[in-house]
Amino acid sequence: VQLVQSGAELRNPGASVKVSCKASGYTFTSYYIDWVRQAPGQGLEWMGRIDPVDGHTKYAQKFQGRVTFTADTSTTTAYVELSSLRSEDTAVYYCYAWRVGLGYWGQGTQVTVSS
Asked: Mean pLDDT across the chain, nearest whole number?
């Protein structure tokens, strides 16, 4: 199983960023995908979840209205897009594919928001 994320991103405040997570080695629609981030010196922060079977999403309240998860079953790739970026969004963003008893992490994508 592999989850390969896109490369580091640098954005200005107010911009948007889209991070990808390419899955392989398992049935893409059999696992949920969560997105989690870790800001410098902070713990892990759960952003939400997508079910690739039907695209159903659940967002953490903190990110509602600013984050969008999508999953493309034809390319087995999940995406997180975060808009209206601010400096506090500087973090490493991770995808996590899981089902009961099993889970796999992407390698992380550094997103830096700075003018």
From this structure: 97
